């Protein structure tokens, strides 16, 4: 019974921290306010989490891992064979993130200044650019000439990711957000499909 209560308290602290980081960002977030929201002393909170940075990591690490997995495992697959299947995988992965971790994702991309995560958006852009570059290389090989320079991958990737982030920022309703992501990815997919 005591262990159950400890886990409930750990989750309550994490939820309060998530709210705090969303509202104030990492730099202005207060461990004291988090403890007050949960109804524990700051000292007791530190028994569960070593401090503000540990709380922040607990909120955002699963999000980064999930996005990294989506980018590396779904977008990496070359278009051209089973495009519809890949399209549905990408749609499912990007909308699934919204349902599970929308708020922590927003915290990661918008409120991580002052943490080791503040360059996460840049890392995500790089991962996406690597995958787009792979698609461009495959397309160029298929054409027997360089149609698209590899450096084109960077602006395409940044545009795609920033558009996705904007949808998440401005569409808090899960169903509406999922609908927008579906339309957004469909728009990009149809454009890319023209090359294959």
Automatic annotation (TrEMBL):
Residue ranges of domain HTH tetR-type in the record: 7-67
Keywords: DNA-binding
Gene3D superfamilies: Tetracycline Repressor, domain 2
InterPro entries documented for this protein: Homeodomain-like_sf (IPR009057), HTH-type_TetR-like_transc_reg (IPR050109), HTH_TetR (IPR001647)
DNA bind region: 30-49
Keyword Electron transport in annotation: no
Any one Pfam family match given in the protein's UniProt record, by short name: TetR_N
SUPFAM superfamilies tied to this protein: Homeodomain-like (SSF46689)
PANTHER family in the record: HTH-TYPE TRANSCRIPTIONAL REGULATOR PKSA, HTH-TYPE TRANSCRIPTIONAL REGULATOR RUTR
Name of the molecule in the record: TetR/AcrR family transcriptional regulator
């Amino acid at each position: 019974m005591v262990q159950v209560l400890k886990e409930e308290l750990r989750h309550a602290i994490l939820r309060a921290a998530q709210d705090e980081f969303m509202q104030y960002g990492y730099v202005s977030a207060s461990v004291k306010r988090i403890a007050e929201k949960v109804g524990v002393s700051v000292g007791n909170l530190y028994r569960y989490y070593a401090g503000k940075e540990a709380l922040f990591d607990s909120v955002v690490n699963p999000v980064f891992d999930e996005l990294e997995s989506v980018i590396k495992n779904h977008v990496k697959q070359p278009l051209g064979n089973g495009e519809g299947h890949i399209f549905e995988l990408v749609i499912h992965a990007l909308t699934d993130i919204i349902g599970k971790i929308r708020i922590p994702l927003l915290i990661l991309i918008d409120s991580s200044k002052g943490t080791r995560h503040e360059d996460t958006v840049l890392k995500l852009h790089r991962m996406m650019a690597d995958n787009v570059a792979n698609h461009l290389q495959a397309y160029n090989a298929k054409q027997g000439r360089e149609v698209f320079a590899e450096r084109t991958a960077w602006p395409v990737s940044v545009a795609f990711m920033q558009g996705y982030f904007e949808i998440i920022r401005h569409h808090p309703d899960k169903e509406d957000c999922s609908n927008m992501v579906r339309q957004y990815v469909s728009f990009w997919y149809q454009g890319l499909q023209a090359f294959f």
